[in-house]
Amino acid sequence: MSIDVNVALTTEPAVREASWTERDVLLYHLGVGAGGNAVDPAELRWVYEKNMRVLPTFALVAGQGISSGSAPSAGLTMPGIDVDLRKILHGGQTLTVHAPIPSSGTARVSSRVADVWDKGKAAVIVLEQTATDSDDGHPLWTTGMQIWARDEGGFGGSPGPESVATLPERKPDTVLTSRTGTGQALLYRLSGDMNPLHADPQFASAAGFDRPILHGLASYGVVCKAVVDGMLDGDPTRVRTYSVRFAGSLYPGETIDIATWREGDVLTLRATCPERNGQPVLTHATMEVRP
After folding, report:
1. 198 an active-site residue?
2. Residues 113 and 11: beta-carbon distance below 8 Å
């Protein structure tokens, strides 16, 4: 076993400074499909620095672009955890936005292992990050990443909370559609996730895929942008929380259909791929929004 649960849970949080520029934000927005119509004012606000808005999902890559100098990782390595890259899968993601993310800035980011769940043949490692503004100390965002580690379970730990995906018993209020680009994974990886699964056909084949797949967090961002554009009047500051489970892979060039149901300030979402008979991409998906 490559996980020492006690060490992982008792290690003090790692703290780092994360800095980003407008260029990093622009590159991220392009990586989640913004700018498809370069003369549309609604698209330009994502990909042109004049009056630019910042998607809240940029928090997941802030300070991690290739210009940061961080090298590609061979796996998940931290105190108490050393798991090979080929054995891990991003299972779920949560984001809580405490304040609008500036188009350039510096944050103090604290990272820790919040939990490790025993799923039998696999373990789920829950990584939590909190970010505060480096200048005034105000909270910016909190994220929770669930990493599925194959063959690392069976240590007798808690299986974690049960989560059942329930959808309202009515037709969706809205169905939004976003088509990804064939080179989108190659563009998105420049925001920091250099996993060869998203670029190297041989690596992808060895992992059981026909070809490189799109990053789960890219799909996460694509859906967020579609909802902000289609339901929140293009205002990213209205997103309060956003939680999903990654249910299936998406190949660059495929389409995401996003069924949405609104009940008060909570949106329930379900993202599927129409090219593969509605195969789920994101499930257990909710977004809490501000008025």
Report:
1. yes
2. yes
Closest CA to 3 of 176, 135, 119, 169: 119
Give the global pTM: 0.92
Residues 6+ apart with CB under 8 A from 237: 100, 290
Query: Among residues 68, 61, 84, 78, which one has the least CA distance to residue 116?
Result: 78
Residue range 41-49: mean pLDDT, rounded: 95
Q: Which candidate in 118, 193, 229, 257 is catalytic?
A: 193
In a 3-state reduction of DSSP, which class is residue 47? helix
Residue position matching structure tokens 């929140």: 232
**Number of helices and strands in the chain (H, E):** 6, 12
What is residue 75's predicted lDDT score, i.e. its pLDDT? 66
Instruction: Specify whether the CB–CB gap between 286 and 267 falls below 8 A.
Output: yes
Say yes or no to pLDDT of 71 above 70: no
Per-residue pLDDT tens for 159-216? 888 877 789 989 999 999 999 999 999 999 999 989 899 999 999 998 889 999 999 9
CB contact set of 179 (below 8 Å; sequence gap of 6+) = 33, 253, 254, 255, 256
What's the pLDDT tens digit per position in 105-124?
A: 999 999 999 999 999 888 89
5 backbone dihedrals φ, ψ, rounded to 5°: -60, -45
To the query of whether residue 118 is one of the catalytic residues in this protein, the response is: no
* 3-state SS, residue 193: coil
Question: Could you tell me where the beta strands, DSSP code E, fall in 199-278?
Answer: 239-246, 255-263, 266-273
Given the residues 29, 198, 215, 284, the one annotated as active site: 198
